[in-house]
Amino acid sequence: MEADQLFTSLCESLGLTIKTAKNQTGTRVEFAGFLLDSASMRVTLSTSKHEKALTLLHQALQLHSDSTKPCSFTLSELQHLTGYLQFIARIVPGGQLHLRHLYSAQAWFPTRLPQHICNRRRITTNMRHELEWWFTLLSASTWTGISLELPVIRSEIHIWTDAASTIGIGGYYIAGTWQTPSVFTDFSQLSPPPHCILARNAFSERPNLKLRKALRIRLHSTTNQERQPTINLLELFAIFRTLELWGDQFRDHSVHFHCDNLVVVNCILRQTTRSSDALFIRYLRTLLARAASLNLSIQCHWLPSSANNIFFLPPAYSRLQYLMSPLSRSHFSSPSLNHNHPPRRWLDLILSQTHMSAATAIILWQSLAPSTRHGYLTGLFSYLDFCQTRRFDTPIPATTTLLLHWLTALASSRSRQASTIQAYLTGVKSHHIDLGLHVTVFDSDLIRRFLRGINNHLPQTIPTQLRREGDLRYRRPILKEDLQTILDSLTTLLPNEPATLGLKAVFSLAWTGFCRIGEITYERKDLVNTSPDEFASKHLVRRSITFEPTPNALSSRTLTGMRITFPSTKTSFLRPIERWIAAVGGPYCPVHLMAEYFCHNSRALSEPLFFASGNPPMPFTRQHVVKILQQFHHSFNGHSFRRGAATWAAQIGLSEADIQSLGRWASATSARRYIEESPQQSLALSSRFQTSIGLFSSTSSVVPSRSPLEKTGVRSVSRPPPGL
């Protein structure tokens, strides 16, 4: 009080008038129409100014009017409203961006007096959006003005984002201080170590459907004006998504965005844009409004694209990959790692239910083949979704009761086979193994008996090895006679064609090597946008074939064998396997056919192994080879060579262990499924049995000398198959 009295007496002695409204006790004072609070260190609108702004917006939008006439303005009304909102924009981050169309509308009025005084113009859609944005912000209880705290005092959040065309967007963040490009010229120092990035602090996804449609239209546009802003919009959307996902965690923080798009960086720093792209403006407005409601101090830093692609992780995230391992950066570009990363849902489950790091989870995921992992995930997600819909709070670890309820629901739907349900159960069991939990519940007598009940309850399916002609899913094996018929037909038709040499080498190699067609050919998607090193890490190339004794002997008949190096197979994922094939001579020898093909087709060692004729020549795709193969018989497919080789090996008396080794099967059970029991062999065994017990004389037993395959037999093709 003494200080107040002293101040009052001093002003009176100097002849100064004190304004009572600004000389009150407390922590709040009104200055220049704004209310300053020294306790919360915030600046907001005074109550009167706030109510006036809402009243003007009410009148402009006719929120309380029953009139059906469209909203309209005179020039003076529009100028009054725009000027008042411009005044408020001083404490609203990004507020100026929401005044563009209001200012542009003032140019529509005639400039001569007195026409412009009473002239009215209707409100446009863009103007309405701006006014609705202001009304929503000012009427929201979450908006409390801006903070007076300096950004350096706030806790920092650093976010890295990236966008990759229409493939996807991604980003991650770390809490705490970090270097900025203005400090260091070595951009490799700007990236946090991979082990510091938690899976829950990173995201990778495709844009929403509406945005993807808009981008697809622009990519197919013929004008550069429409194509150019595509990446700008994606980069901005990536930043927008970070605040959508984690905005509530960033409240009252200083957020630093690291982006390699200079247009987006400038727009965020200026909090406005000159772009006419309505979608870009919309996301920028929403981003700034979200930042204002969360009381965020936004900083944006530009990074060169080269630095972002080489040293930073977001390009990997934006391509729907999860490279969160503490491995060296040289491993990030390794093709063997880039195409086998776990889905986000599985990764989140592992990290939330264990104490594993992201690197440990990725290595654990790679313990099984990708096809096996994805098959297990189908069953696991089916189980988790069932427990969620039935409101079972703790699905993991699984109990006998939960498993019985789930299996009953699967069997009752009758939309899955018994073998599929059992595979689903194996997927849930595999997840328990990943988590280090006990799996005794899956092997209990009750579960086994229940599975037998499902097998009896559902319609039975014919096993693959018992399917015969007439079944659409029948995979006819190619036996020795069938292979000879096919190769002879190719030789008769086109004896000197390079494509024919390639086809003969493919067919002979597939049969003698117990191969699926997909192992020695390629898919169309593998031939597009794939680097030579990445292609060679997954598929056979010319350097995968090595002849013995020396390469100089290719033109002679002195070859003893051929070594094939499979870079990756279904049973040995990411581990090369070597197989040797002996040279036995004759017109069907795969070694001599391959050597002859190499002599007529000289190409680089890193190129695909087999090429078809054409201009330019194209590598053999699986669809191309199977289509030609089915010209000889409609039941032939990619597994016919592998099934035929296993069946023939069993007929000539090779042991199961030898067949398993030749076919590279993981178990004898898997190999046994490829062996088709020959009717001729069954007749021979029955004849031996009946002759040995004296039911019939040995002369009356008739063992057919002709294979039943020759009855319906493989037809010789008298005309070239399509594609040759």
UniProtKB/TrEMBL annotation:
Location of region: Disordered: 702-724
Keyword DNA-binding belongs to the record: yes
Give the record's keywords alphabetically.
DNA recombination, DNA-binding
Q: Which Gene3D superfamilies does the record cross-reference, listed alphabetically?
A: 1.10.150.130, Intergrase catalytic core
Tell me a Gene Ontology molecular-function term this record carries: DNA binding
- Is DNA-binding a UniProt keyword of this protein? yes
Where in this chain does the record put each Core-binding (CB) domain?
Answer: 356-436
Name a single GO biological process. DNA integration
Protein name per its UniProtKB record: Core-binding (CB) domain-containing protein
This protein's species is Ascobolus immersus RN42
